[in-house]
Amino acid sequence: MAAVFSVFLTSLFVTVPCVIRLLYCLLWVPWRLQRRFRLQGIKGPPRRLLSGNAAEFRAMLEGAQSSPPLASFHHAGVLSRVVPHYHEWSARHGRPFVYWFGPRARLVVSDHDVVATVMTDSTEAFDKSGFGGGNPLARQLFGQGLPGLSGDKWARHRRVVAPAFNMERVKAWIPEIAAITSSMLDTWEVQGESRHTEFEVDVYQGFHTLSAYVISHVAFGSSYEEGNRIFELQQEQGKLVALAMRTVYIPGFRFVPTNKNRRRQSLNLELQNLLRKLIEINGRKCEDAKNLLGLMLSASKALSKFKMDIEEIIEECKVFYFGGKETTAHLLTWATLLLASNREWQDKARDEVHRVCGKFEHPNAENLSNLKIVDMVLKETLRLYPPVVAVNRTATRDIKLGKLDIPAGTQLEFPIIDIHRDTGVWGADADEFNPWRFADGHRRYHLGAYLPFGMGPSVCVGKNLSMVEAKVALAMILQRFTFVVSPSYVHAPILMMNTRPQYGAQILACKI
Ligand code: HEM
């Protein structure tokens, strides 16, 4: 009897504190935070007890993706398809508004001053929320690399990796980028048979292959073929991560042997093995070339505080294979579609390319910066169709920002795609494609009002590569082809990690 009683007492001692802690985290903390937001007049959709607004969030995204495409290549309805939750909740509850992912508050803020203050903060009052908002299932894609790191580890990796993409290095890759683009355009030309014959190309697929070739060559000194399986695995991993990010993560769930979890494990394992092999084969060559992989390998041998071990290098490789390919491909896709639908800007940009680079010569390091109109077109594309739709930071302590009183633990969400369409900054025609906004000497916009590549210490490492690659490719397409949007294109942008066209991006091109 005494033994039974002592077992009972022990289990009571173990379970009661656990239950109290659970009640504290799941009920008391959210209730207290919600009250604090309410006192400031910040509203949001009604929160469900355990899941918050996760179910509605998921339903809205799925609903948007199965809704009919937009009537024409019009940009006003884009938010309701890509980020329906921002669109609907900000209309209903105003800005800022708060929604809940499980017990976690997500405060969506579009105010430029707050955006700029938080993103450029160096006091450690805000932490990167980690890729996927800390969901371990999302971290598999590249959560252990730069985007998912913070503190000393982030600083150490950033210090090693950033020099691989400085402008001088990127400019040196222009001939390779031009050669890769040229072979892609040769395949288009074969389809065109003769001058003045229109032919259809799906540029979405083409640009993915182009940017995969570029990142394989310039960062890893490898061929597209070597990286091909890595891209395939990451493609599948990306889809699984996008699904995981729509649900509240229950601690320990990733160890439950569901079909998806098993697939996640095997994808990750194969990816790790492939990258390990790639490093073994190409390591030496890369160290000599001082490209991304080379710089990381040199750092692994250095006896300095910037040393990276091989597991860390593998994690960074995942980031650059994925980030290097996806985002630039989406930028090029939208820029081409926008020019295809706007003959006036297409002609202006082509005239400039002919004037600056000639009709047949590839763009080079000397003349690329003179392509001002192409640059304006790309910047306007990034405003209307930013591949990364939002950035997040978590408040590490209670903090006041202007009128906002932000409790520790709140995840601040900055909806780039919404900020980029603020009529207060961009004018009544914020939903229109108008590259003049980015002309030299044109009205300057506030620092926190335009951030396709983020800003502050964590600003995108690949920004230079992306812009140079997109400029070279777009200039060469303009040199060789005129193009319009194909009647088979349907305008249905969606969010699948990045903003992308749901059914491809078909244009009708014609050789010049
Ligand atoms: C159009 C193309 C691109 C866009 C729109 C874009 C967007 C972004 C944004 C918004 C961030 C900031 C995230 C944050 O602060 O939380 C970021 C970070 C990052 N991007 Fe990009 N990116 C692009 C291309 C690339 C490319 C080509 C690479 C690799 C070669 C790359 C690698 C990275 C990395 C490593 C980070 C994390 C930086 C850090 O945390 O220190 N990106 N990117």
TrEMBL record:
Cofactors named for this entry = heme
Protein's cellular compartments: Membrane
Q: Please give the superkingdom of this protein's source.
A: Eukaryota
Q: Which GO terms describe its cellular component?
A: membrane
Example of a GO biological process term:
lipid metabolic process
Transmembrane ranges, per UniProt, are 6-29
What Gene Ontology terms describe what this protein does at the molecular function level? heme binding; iron ion binding; monooxygenase activity; oxidoreductase activity, acting on paired donors, with incorporation or reduction of molecular oxygen
User: What's a Pfam family this protein contains?
Assistant: p450
**What SUPFAM superfamilies does the annotation carry?**
Cytochrome P450
Keyword Metal-binding present in the record's keywords: the answer is yes
Residues the record lists as binding heme: 460
**What family name appears in the similarity comment?**
Belongs to the cytochrome P450 family.
Protein name per its UniProtKB record: Cytochrome P450 734A1
> Which organism does this sequence originate in?
Sorghum bicolor (Sorghum)
